[in-house]
Structures are given as C-alpha cells and as structure tokens.
Amino acid sequence: MKISQIGAIALFSATLAAMAGPASAETYRLSQNTSNTTTWQKGAEKFNELLGEATDGKMDVRIFPNAQLAGGDQMKQTEMVSRGSIDFMLTSAINVTPLVPELAVFSLPYLYSDYDAVDATTSGEPGQKIEEILKEHGIIALAWGENGFREVTNNVRPIKTPEDMQGLKMRVSGPMYIDVMQALGANPQQMQWSETFPALQQGVVDGQENPIGAVIIPQRVYEVQKYLTTWHYSYDPLFLGVSEKLWDSWDDETKTTVKKAAEEAMEYQKEISREGTAKGVEFLREQGMDVYEPNAEEIDAFRKATKPAFDTWSKKVGEDLVKSFQDTIAQSN
Asked: What pTM was computed for the model?
C-alpha cells in the first residue's frame, strides 16, 4: 500500500472518529415528574450540563419530563430506578412514600417553620439516615433539591380556617396527604400530576396543594385556580437519585464526578426555586388570584387540626426517625 493511501485511510478514520464524538460516550436517562417549564427540569438540565463539562462530553443525560418513561406513573418511576430500568430520577420525597414510607417524615404537617430548619435536616444526620433507607431500596440519593412549602389552592372559596376545607375535593400526591385532608374535613383524591391540570380545569377536583416557585407558577396552576392560601403546612424536598446498580458499576472517580455535579445542580435548583417563591405571591396576585396570608394564630389552628395525621404518620415512619428530625430542627433555631 502506498504512503498516500495510508495517509488517506488515516485521515478518513480520524474524520469518522471526530464525527462520532468521544469514543466512550455514554448516554443515561433521567426521569422527572413535572413538565419541562419547572425548576425540576432546570435542575436536571444543569446536572447534564455540569456532568458533560466535567467529563468532556463522555457522560450525557437525556431528560424525560412528566415521568414519561413510566407512563406518567410516579410510583412506577421509583420502582424502575430501584430495579435499574431507569438510570436517574429527580423526584420529590412525598412521591416515593408508597415505596419508602419513611420519606413522609419531611412532609409531616407543620414540622418545619423555615428554610434554616429544612437545610439543617437535609445536610445533617436526618438526611443521612434517609439516604441509608433509600439505598436499601436500590436508590442512591446524590443530592437534595427543593419542591418547597406546599400551599393550598381551590376554586370554591378562600381558605382561612380549617372549617373552610370542609367538603372540598382536593387532589393529593401521596397517602399521607389523604390523612391530612381527611383530618381537615376535605375529600382527598390521589392522582398523578400529569392528570391534575385537566382535572382542575374540568372541575373534577376543586383544588390542590403545591409549592409556589416549583410548581404553581411554572405549571400555570393560576390559570385554573382562583384562591390561594399560604398556610406553609407541609414541606417537600426533591432528591436526585441514581440506580444503585448503575452506581456500583462506576469507579470511585466517576462516582465523585457524578455526585459533585448532582450537588451543584441541586444547589442551583434550590436557589431558583426559593427566588421564584419569594416573588411568587405578588405575581399570582397580578395574575388575578385571591391570595390569603394567614397570621400565626390562624396557622396554629391548622396545626392543631392536622395533629391527628401528624401522630398517625409519626408512627408509620418511625418515632425515632421523627425525633431525630425534631431534635435537629430545635438545634437549628
């Protein structure tokens, strides 16, 4: 073979390699529960961006919103990650409670009063305990993000007292919220988020409860709901998780790279979610929502009304676990 032919073949091979991208590039699938307009999606996109930068494009994450890979079923999504059928998921703790009931601890009614208390638990010993429990179910929690404090909306009347909840058909996302709503005299109906907007639009349910910055605004809930009460009754963190099977297939360097990208991405997601919440009430008023902000005495009435649900779920998640959260929160004040 002539030297010129060898050179041509080498050039052709190099061109093909360049077109193909990194020889060992891997594409992973990430499922998240909400639409592509939310802080969840932005956090997932930031994770992909950071991971790509850290690995020179050798790791790529394809994001599937609305739990598409699980047919919109958030419970099935968790099970698929646990089995290794889905690589990553970004989900809220409350959506995982049917499989891992201990995660309901974060959302116990009126457990938290502010963000400092939240951050103390997710970054401290309570968060580590939850991560150990998730690992027992085949899921590695890489980092904590934020769905936020859940506020209540409806189309029937302003919610100012527990009695105002009587008889309202309320969409809820998990079993604990069924008990909370029943304690308030409402009629809870559990449904996937993908089904909720049309259900609100058509009057199948009267209302729902979700965080302002992470869901109510980006999902445009204000277009189909009239009244909002900032009762801060329950908090819901997000976590970015990876299948333990995939995690165990990586060397230590890859694990460190993935975890670092996840932590930075969730810090970003938390920041933009809190910014959106801080500006959100005024925005919702501008959109025509009737917003009621209860005072401390009114909040206490809701706290007392939901105490039976708190006690029931404290036993279900484990009273020692609840105490570790309460102790950490007390120390953060």
From this structure: 0.84
